[in-house]
Every structure is written in structure tokens, then in C-alpha cells.
Amino acid sequence: MKTNRLSDTLTQALNAQMTKEAHASQIYLSYATWADSEGFGGISNFLFRHAAEERNHMMKILEFILKRGARAKVTEIPAPPADPTSVNNCFEKVFEHEVDNTKAIYSILKLASEEEDWVTWNFMQWFVSEQEEEETLAMELLDKIKICGGENASHTVLYELDRDLEKTPDDARLAQDVTTDNP
Ligand code: OFO
User: How would CATH label the architecture of 8-172?
Assistant: First the structure.
């Protein structure tokens, strides 16, 4: 008896998204190490915490695929892009990456809707809300940097931003509900 409740198309799309979340985690990790090597300990810490969040997202999808009786496939993760060239560039890249991820999530929702797989559609709503929070966070940070001069922000301003980010509760509210132990 077949108990798999996910179509092949959605299984493939969810597996690809799982790898995309792992890739996102690698991107944040690489930017975090870049920030640390540039002397921005607060920004680095913020990005390291975010890398852990993205890994939790990967686990959340993996768990869902298994729960629906389908085959999760762990594959290679693409390398992260080149290091940022400045703090402004770092958060621009973060924002672009989050928008790209939102688009990927929308396309899974579209598929789920076409297939009338409302369980998957419902599951993916969590990611829609999460992306909204993460895009907002990135936009707010970019706005702050812009006010401070963007690419021309002074060392003093960057020092203060770095100090603020050390304390910023970066965890989007929903991401706090999800951990590797409790995907
Ligand atoms: Fe950027 O959050 Fe995962 O999905």
C-alpha cells in the first residue's frame, strides 16, 4: 500500500528548498566569518545566530518530507558567494538573498495550490510569515545603514551599529519556535 502523501513534483521542490535553506545557512556563516575578520564582532555574532536559524529551517522541511511519507534527499550544498565588500554590501546581499528565498517559497506554494495539496500549502505558510519577518529585518538594517551614510558610513557609526547588533534580538519571532531538536 502506498502511504506517500507527497507528489513527486512537490517532493523534488521541497528537497530543493531543503538544500536552499542549508545553502542560506552557509551564506550567513561565510558572511559572519567575513564580519569577524573585519573586526565587527557584533555583526558577526548576529550573522552566526542567523546561520543557525537557517539550518533549523532546513530541518523543519526535512522533517515535513519524512512525515508525509516521502523520501528526503540530503545532497551537496553549493558554495557561498564571494565575501561582502563592506557592511552596506553585506546587508544588501543578505536582503537580496532573502528575497530570492521568498520567491522559491512562493513557487512551492503555487505548486501545492495547483495540486490542491493543502497540507503542504498550510505548512509553507509558516515560511511565508518567516520570510516577511526576515525581509523586514534586512530592510530595517539597510535603512539604518543608509541614514548613516551607506557605503560612506564612518567608522564611528559602524562601531555603534556593530555594538547595537550584538544586542539585537535577531531571531524572527517564528524562528524561535523551531530548533534542530524540535523542527
Ligand atoms: Fe531566511 O529564512 Fe529560511 O526560509
Answer: Up-down Bundle (1.20)
